[in-house]
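Notes to self, Glycosyltransferase RgtA/B/C/D-like domain-containing protein:
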Amino acid sequence: MVKVSLSHISIVSSLLIVFSIVFATKYWRDDKEIISNDIISYYAYLPAIFIYQDISLQFAEKQNDDVRLKIWYQIAENNGKVIKTTMGVSFCYLPMFVIAHQLAPAFGYVPNGYTLPYRLSIVLSAMLFFTIGLVYLRHILLRFYNEVTTAITLFGVAVGTNIVNYVVFESGMGHVFSFALITMFVHFTIKWYERQSNKSLLLLGTLGGLIVLIRPTNILIVLFFLLYGINSFAAIKTRLLLFVFKWKQVACAVLCAFLVLVPQLLYWKYNTGNWVFFSYSDNEHFFFNDPKIIGGLFSYRKGWLLYTPFMVFAFIGLLFNKKEVRGAILVLLALLIYVTFSWWSWWYGGSFGARPFIDFYGVFAFPIAAFIGYVIQKSRWLTIGILVITTFFIYLNLFQAYQYRNGLLHYCATTKKTYWGNFLKTKSYDTYWEDLIEIDNEAAKNGERDY
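result:
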């Protein structure tokens, strides 16, 4: 008989809440939703390769508007048409895409890659990876924490953060997929250091390659692999000796990562004439000398901790982290904040909160659990207080996701006045739209980024 635990109940409850919202809203029914904005580029590889057999994208001009307007590309120096984003997210869409393509004609839909079954396939892909991420996160947390701490942490991450928006409303964005893959990467990192099996290391290489193929800056997760368990200078020496002793296995893992990247390199070579192509060429770049850390964390425009206050627990929990992960997470978090908010568009366009951090919620769950576990051990009344605060954070997160989706919380122009003017309201106040402060993207690309 299968024993049902609190952490199981937490996952099931989280999935029921999030999936209920998915099926209540049914955004995939609207042909203007799901495959839109950045998702147009993430997705374009699949119809181009599997339906139109034309990665040069010449087919696009011959299609009707339903397809033609959903193919975005840039022109390379050799006049080749090239998709701006890398193809990692499309790898994650692929299983559901294949099913949708087989079923579309049977249900009377045109199998052109853009009708309802294909949109639904993207939503189902996000739901699948969200589930996988939570399952692996449960396994990770139970290695270090008890059922109660694990259950609260899981529920908070799943329902109390902006990841909900990217399962329900913007399912095709890469963040839910990266969340699952990075959480798996953490799981197999821990597993490899426990047993040092070749299988775990090869899986780490493959996962690492796919993580980078989805979002190149997420290569930072490799720091977790390198620094896990390092808590002294003696441990550094032992780690280096381990890598020397296991150099063949490590080399094979690196090869696995490279092989995942090969299709992208071949695509760039075919369409641009170069093995590597930098598609963010419209003066889009990092300002490493001017990271907008305060704005990125606390601003009304897009502050991570304002829009996702549950993550405050992660910062507090750094003080109580387990020694195995303390250094790794501290270094990773510091670099991630620095790199993320050094991008010219530190608010990351139209988005709900600081979306790049969603990818690493499986990592930040460690300090969250550390803080919650500490509180539970300390005092019953403190525990009740934390549960009340967590409940409010979850409510606020879901409500603000609703506001964001309905224009009550602007995707990039929110100010102090508009935030508090619409706080916990379902209708905007009279001068809301006039009080928003829009961003000048061209000025921001040239360094004027103080918003």
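- The mean pLDDT is 94.
- Residues 116-142 form the longest helix (27 residues).
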